[in-house]
Amino acid sequence: MNIEPYIAELLYRYQCVTVPGLGAFLTEIQSAHWVESANSFFPPKKMISFNANLKNNDGLLANHIAQAEKTSYDYAVSAIQYEVLNWKKALEANGDFSIKNIGNISLNADNNIVFKPLDQTNYLSSSFGLSAFVSPVVKRENFEQKIEALEENTVITLNTEERSGRSYLQYAAIFILGLGLTASIGYSVYQNQIASETVLVETAVQKQVNNKIQEATFFIKSPMPAVTLSVKESKMSYHIMAGAFREEKNADKIFKRLSNLGYKARRIAVNKYGLYPVLYGSYATYAEADKAKKEIQKTDNPEAWLLIESL
Asked: Which residues fall within 8 angstroms of residue 94, CB to CB, at 6 or more apart?
């Protein structure tokens, strides 16, 4: 039986997967990191290591194989032992062997086991689908040096006109200035005329409005009846109970304490059991009362409860 896929499956779910008789594969989460020299970004992953001293059977791998293969636990243990025996033979004969999607195990000069993990598989399930990202190098050009070079090489030239051309410009400027003065004087006269006509129109309109008001007042025979609006007060049917007390003085004591704490505390009539109830407050809707009850249970009285009057 090939047990390699089952070891890989358990590495997704557990930090330690022990292969009885061989050793344990350990995982450690490595956070995402950036390698500046390679312009590469690597997502979070599980780093795999190997400890040859943890060889005792913890039952994890054998139980997983037994459930997956629908066989007995003892048969799964025997399959693991047989596979580990083949790996050890390959290690003695070739000096190394590979476990698919996990890594390579070899012997060094001192006959100690050396494990080299494979980086192709990321056993961190939360990083599923994420792969390394290589960002292209951003080239930055120094535009300031180019601007300075252009400023040094640019020659600014001024074209001067002849003397005769300036005289025509002077006459044109005087002519334009005269037009401006005439236009400003004419515009002010025009504005005064518009203002006078506007006053006349407003006066005529106001006179017509006053006439309409007088006609409307004339046809009203009797005063309009007063409109009465009745607003139905919502009933406070949901009460948060602070307690019911046999002694009235105890009820008064609790009522004063709640009032000092800022609650809209109330005392209601003695109930049929002869007890004096004290309320934290009353509410019109169940939602308001339930929200207030939870806050009171958390901050003041865990035993506060909700009383609902029959509607």
From this structure: none
- Model confidence pLDDT, tens digit, residues 251-301: 899 999 999 989 989 898 888 888 999 999 999 898 998 999 999 999 998
The conformation of residue 38, written as its DSSP 8-state character, comes to T
pTM for this entry: 0.41
Contacts of 29-33 with C-beta under 8 Å, sequence gap 24+, read: 29/124
Higher-confidence position of 269 and 182: 269
Q: CB–CB of 125/44 below 8 Å?
A: no
Which tens digits make up the pLDDT trace of 84-129?
A: 999 989 888 888 989 988 899 998 888 888 999 987 677 776 655 5
Q: What is the distance between the alpha carbons of residues 76 and 69, in angstroms, rounded to a whole number? A: 9
How many Å apart are CA 238 and CA 73, to the nearest integer? 61
Contact between 33 and 42 (Cβ < 8 Å): yes
Q: Which two tokens stand for residue 47?
A: 């780093």
Grouping H, G, I as helix, E, B as strand and the rest as coil, residue 181 is: helix
Token digits of residue 135? 């960002």
Q: How many helices (H) and strands (E) in the chain?
A: 7, 13
Read off the tokens for 4.
């390699």
Integer Cα distance of 127 and 124 in angstroms: 6
Burial of 22 (0-12, 13-18, 19+ CB in 10 A): buried
Q: Are 12 and 96 in contact (CB under 8 A)?
A: no
